[in-house]
Every structure is written in C-alpha cells, then in structure tokens.
Amino acid sequence: MKYTNIIKAKFISRPNRFIANVMVDGKTEVAHVKNTGRCRELLTDNADIFLWQSDNPQRKTKYDLISVYKGNRLINMDSQIPNKVFGEWVENSGFFKDVTLIKPETTFGNSRFDFYIETKTDKIFVEIKGVTLEENGVVLFPDAPTERGVKHIQELCECVENGYKAYLFFIIQMSDVKYFTPNVKTHPQFAQALRNAKSKGVEIMALECIVTSDSITANKFVDVIL
Asked: What does the alpha-carbon distance between residue 56 and residue 64 come to, in Å, rounded to a whole number?
C-alpha cells in the first residue's frame, strides 16, 4: 500500500480521539487521527510523525495522521489500512491456493466479515484486526476492551460450525517484532475468546509489515502465542 503527499511533522497533543494538534514547518495545525484507539504509548510529546496532506479545500482538516516513531520503530497507525494490506497480500502471496473470488465486507447470518474468499476447494471468511500496541518487541491486541472484537470471534466460530473455513488475521503495523499475543490485562474475555476459537478450528494468524514513511506492505508471519 502506497501513500502520496506525505510530510513529516511533530505531535503536540490529542484533544480528543479524532484529532491531534501537530507542528508542520513551525506552524501548529490540526490533523485527523485515523485511529480511535488509545495509542497513548505512541502519541507522546514531540514524537516524530508522518501526515498525509489532502488537496481537498472542503475538508475540515488538511492532514491525516498516518504513522509515528516509537523510539527507532516506525508504526503505521492508520486503522483503515490493514484491510487494504491484507487484500494486496492475498493477491500476491499465494497463501490461499486457486482463489476464484475475493469479496470484501461480506455478510453471513447477522455478521459482516472483512473478507469472503472462495477457492476451488474452500469457502472462507476472514476477519482483520490491525495491531499498533508493542511492548519490548511483543505486539498485543486490543489496546482497549472490545466487545465488538469478542463478537467477531464468536461469529467466526459459527462459520466453522456451518462448514466454512474461518481465519482471524492480525495485521501488525510495524516490523521486527518477537511474537503476537492477546492483551490479557486489558481484555481477558478477548483472550479467552481467541483460545476458544482456536480449539474450534478458527485459524489465528499474525502478519508483520514493512513500514516506511509512505508505504506499508505485509511481510512475514510471526508466532501467535495464546
């Protein structure tokens, strides 16, 4: 996934979950934060960030906050990007063999999943979660309690019970991590739901990404420890 119109800036503050005050070329500006998670460990005072600059004069904010440096590690925090990264990866990786259909945002029963994939032999539902939380090289999800996330996991189990294959992919929006694990301290029910789903046949997988100032690309699998 490639961005255009990317500029470097400094983070100042986050008045609410939707906007951030940033410094661009010595001037204070307002940027839209494309991630409603807490991200407290990322958006720290004077952190180096990258912004996407819009050329649409009708927008309320001129910029979108795309990525941030945490020490020497560049982390993409655009919550809209993991699905795009996964879609590109499916088309280029060959992980799913003999794909005949890739359909985003597909409904099954009362559920809507990020992707529905058909191959010559299988019908597959896939849910995607973006991961930005990192502690000492270990990446975790979620960074805040997510009942919606638990519901998605339970619904993937229902897919398996109805004869489909089901995958939960964690797209790790950074590189060089040790492994992925659920954030038990923040949401123990989510961690338990993951373990239950694994026992019922849902595939739990994590892909780390190569992140640059203007791109993010799925790179390789990392271990999932439940």
From this structure: 12
